[in-house]
Structures are given as C-alpha cells and as structure tokens.
Amino acid sequence: MIGRRGVLQAAGALAVLRSGVANADELFLRNGASPQQLATPLEFFDRAITPTRVFFVRSHFGPPALDRTRKTAFDGLVTTPLTLDVEELRKSFPEVTITAVLQCAGNGRAMQKPRVPGVQWQHGAMGQATFTGVRLKDVLTKAGLSKDALFLRVSGADAPPKPTVPGFIRSLPIERAMDPTTLVAYRMNGEDLTLAHGAPLRLIVPGWAGDHWVKWLTSVRAQKEEDAGFFMKTAYRMPTEAVEPGAAVPPEKMKPATTFPVKSIIARPDGQKRPVGPQEVVGIAVSGVAPIASVEVSIDGGKTWAKATVEGEGGIGRAQVFRYRFDQKEPGHVKAMARAKDKKGNEQPESPPWNPSGYFWNGWHAVDWEVGT
Ligand SMILES: Nc1nc2c(c(=O)[nH]1)N[C@H]1C(S)=C(S)[C@@H](COP(=O)(O)O)O[C@H]1N2
Ligand SMILES: [Mo]
Q1: Is 4-256 assigned to CATH 3.90.420.10?
Q2: N or C: which end of the chain has fewer CB within 10 A?
Q3: Quick one: which of 86, 42, 339, 315 has its CA closest to 217?
Q4: What is the pTM of this model?
C-alpha cells in the first residue's frame, strides 16, 4: 500500500518535472545540488535570445505550487485596490513585449578576489528573453496611485523554509515602477512563463539586477517607506564609495544595487583547437545604464583593440551580439579579449572594484585556443 504522503510526494515530483524546473536535458551548469542555481552555458551567448530551456534559474527558497489562476493584489496607497490574474490583466491593459537581459546581481561572483560567500556564479547567471505582459504603470494608474507612495513592496508566493528565515520581499522605488519598461509579465520567449521563471506573473525591470524581478507575484503594495526586511536592508546592497578589498562594510554605508554595469562576454571560440585561417570571436554585450556604443576585441593581450560589429537593436538592458573576424595565418596559441562601452560613456573595466557581496563583476572576458594545421 502506498500512503497518502507517498501519493502527494509522487504528485509533487511529477508536477516539478512537468513544470520544467527539473533539469531534464542536463545542459545547465550546476552550482551545487540545488535546482535553484542553474547557470546558462557560455556557448549560448552567441545569440540575442537565450532559449528558455537553458535560461539560468535562481531562487532563494524554490518555487511555490504552479497555479496559473493565482491573483496579484495591487493595493496600499491607492484609491481602488485591484486583484487580478493573468486573464484579467490581459483584458484590461495593452499588451507589451520587451527584449531584455535578466541578470543576477551575483553573476561573476566567482571572479572576485578575495572571494566572498554566495553562489559562485561564473558567467551564466544571465540570459536575454522577450517578455510579454502589461505595464506596471498602467495597472498602478488604474488603481489610482497616491502621490504619497514612494515605494512598492513586492512579494511572491514562495515561502522561506522556516518562520525564522526572512521572506523574499523587495521594494521598488515609484519612479522605477512607473518606467514604461517595467512590466508585469506572463510570457517569456513567446510562451507562458514556466514555473521556474515565475509563472503565472513576474516583474520585469530591464537594466536592473534580477532580485528586482520578483517571481510568482502575489502582492504589490504602494507605501511611503522602503521595506525594512533582510532583502532590502542587508542583502543586495553595494558600497556607496570604493572600499578596500576584503573590508567589512556596514549596511548603512551601502545602497540597494540597481542597474548592472556595462559588460561583454565571449561565447565562441570555446577553447577547442581550430584550424589555421579565419577565426571568429562572437559574444553578447549589454549595459543596464544605456544602449551599447561599441565592443572592441584584442588579440595581442590588450596592446591594440579593433572594433567588433554589433548586431541588432540596442537598448537599456538589452544585449546585442558582437562579432570580430580575423585571419590566423600561423599555427600557435591565440587569446582574445573583449570590452564594451555604453552610450553614457561607461567602459567595461579590466578588473572592477571589489565589493563585499561580489555583485556586478564585469571585468574583461578572455578566451584562448590553439590554432593548428
Ligand atoms: N519570488 C521570488 N522572486 C525572485 C527570487 C526569489 O527567490 N523569489 N529570486 C530573484 C533573483 S535573486 C533572481 S537573480 C531572479 C532569477 O530569475 P530566473 O530564475 O527567472 O532566471 O529571480 C528573482 N525573483
Ligand atoms: Mo539573483
């Protein structure tokens, strides 16, 4: 006989498999055993859109049950609180699709020296997708947002493992909430959001780090104050001024991490030996602050740099593919480095300043490979 518990466990395991949370095709790069820390393999950064099946997954406590009819409450300092599910949102507001990079603040943490605690992400805590939904601004306007509201307190249906662990509660400043690119999304890459990526509804905050992109949305509350919980006042903060590597920085000397800095990342070559002749360096570049202005590649250790071609449409927080071709006539060892610039004049540094949580590492990315006959 199989008990009620066993049946529930089996049903749960099946639900997880169906929802795509399980790593069926094993293409993800894993950081430990947790299915909530899956990284996109580097080779997928040779294109503008990261396929959903290899799109990195990160959450603190794992997903809640899948409920596609779950409602989100938009309330607090508003005249008319609204409680809406996907269908009601779609009926009530214009639909918008935005192409944007979702990147964890901790992407690149493994490259920080001295090393800091946290998931040791290399390059794969990032991906770009098309996100479809409605503008948060439209919903808040319909709800009659009060002028006294300065922040939104945003939370989802996921719960911490025990009551002593703080819940994942985030605050978004009103100006950012009212930005026309901030969406309440229900589709990713043209399909309904998967459970791993926040179904049925999640926030899209192009240009800002992933922690603002709250998944499994249940509550959006307009308030005067920023939330005082762990995930605003302790986690996801950056020093307000440069600090000594390894220094302890008190939270009050830090501010919430928002936009991610300009970076480029090389997807190919991938380190495999290649024949003498034409070589192509391909990757993507993005800045959370401004569209990409240029990408340069060096194959002589940084002595000289040449402009790569940058393809497709740019935007704040929108990645573009870059390509650089050269002819390698002699066999030998080749090393290519890339660096990007954005339209606000920010340049990708060779090695960015250290910070206590290892956020926003955006140093030059280098790949090397053997050219033979
Ligand atoms: N409700 C909820 N939303 C969340 C999180 C979470 O733990 N709970 N993690 C955030 C973090 S830290 C990141 S980087 C992104 C990752 O989104 P993805 O799994 O779709 O790539 O989701 C964000 N949204
Ligand atoms: Mo994150």
Answers
A1: yes
A2: N
A3: 86
A4: 0.92
